[in-house]
Design goal:
306 residues; mainly alpha; Rhopdopsin 7-helix transmembrane proteins; three-stranded mixed beta sheet; 11 helices; 3 strands; globular; disordered N terminus
Length: 306
């Protein structure tokens, strides 16, 4: 019976961001430009860190992986959204919908854990500078990155397993521009209240735990520096400001979407756009503008070509 019910819905209808044709064409230009900048910016950071020997350190190794994850995360939903602006009827197959859910949570969960790893790297560098090289060795860096990918995979798999076998036999309209679990699960032909609470708690708990670890880490870093070195407080604050900014921008929408009990359509769409499109763009911009070593590496690269 479950197979019959599920097979009766082969695709979902996507309403998108708006109904106005003129506004859709305007958004097509805007989001196409943002996506192009996001892709080029993140690829540029990865290549810059790989080619510049002065950036071959744990901090920039983790930053390169963050840019790569942002590149992947932005490519999960944005290309589909851009092409849908040109279509009168916006649809996505059942398989395509499940793929968006899996890879969205895979890269999103991995980025959460990677941000915690970057906070740990800053903690060791600032609070235990004499032991930094011994603690943050090559194997530790690889282990931290692999852990982020593994946790992201386990998280996305646990989410997908719970929703892929649900019976979808009736309504198939998604009031959004992509597939996400809170919206798709409401279309199932059964009472999903308990399952919905469990799935939201899964994502919400992961985001909340990572956010608490990050806030605790950076608070301890700043407290330690201010306590023992007033002169180093401004430098530590400058080092951590970019990380803290990315953390707030990334985790804010995630925690709101999965833990906020009240669903407001336009707010959910705005946060989804911010999470899927804007955040992967802001990460390279923030690290480029706030990080002196990255700016120096860009100057060296420019001088070499000149």
């Amino acid at each position: 019976m479950d197979e019959v019910n599920q097979s009766s819905v082969y695709e979902f209808l996507i309403l998108g961001l708006c109904d106005s044709r003129e506004l859709q064409l305007f958004l097509l230009v805007i989001f196409s430009s943002l996506y192009l900048i996001t892709i080029l910016g993140n690829i540029f950071i990865v290549l810059l860190i790989i080619t510049d020997l002065r950036l071959h350190s744990p901090m920039y190794f983790l930053l390169a992986n963050l840019s790569f994850i942002d590149f992947c995360l932005s490519s999960v939903t944005t290309p589909k959204m851009i092409t849908d602006f040109l279509k009168e009827k916006k649809t996505i197959t059942f398989g395509g919908c499940m793929c968006q859910i899996f890879f969205g949570h895979f890269f999103g969960g991995g980025e959460m854990v990677l941000l915690v790893s970057m906070a740990y790297d800053r903690y060791v560098a600032i609070c235990k500078p004499l032991h930094y090289s011994s603690i943050m060795g090559r194997q530790m860096c690889i282990w931290l990155v692999m852990t982020s990918w593994i946790i992201g995979f386990v998280h996305s798999t646990s989410q997908l397993v719970l929703i892929v076998k649900l019976p979808f036999c009736g309504p198939k309209t998604l009031d959004s521009f992509f597939c996400d679990i809170p919206l798709v699960i409401k279309l199932a032909c059964m009472d999903t209240y308990i399952l919905e609470m469990f799935i939201n708690a899964d994502s919400g708990v992961l985001a909340t735990i990572c956010f608490i670890l990050l806030v605790t880490s950076y608070s301890y870093i700043l407290f330690t520096v201010c306590l023992y070195s007033k002169d180093g407080a401004s430098k530590a604050l400058s080092t951590c400001t970019a990380h803290i900014t990315v953390v707030v921008l990334f985790f804010g929408p995630c925690i709101f979407i999965y833990l906020w009990p009240i669903s407001i359509t336009w707010v959910d769409k705005f946060l989804a756009v911010f999470y899927a499109v804007i955040t992967p763009l802001l990460n390279p911009a923030i690290y480029t503008l706030r990080n002196q070593e990255i700016k120096n590496a860009m100057k060296r690269l420019r001088c070499q070509h000149i």
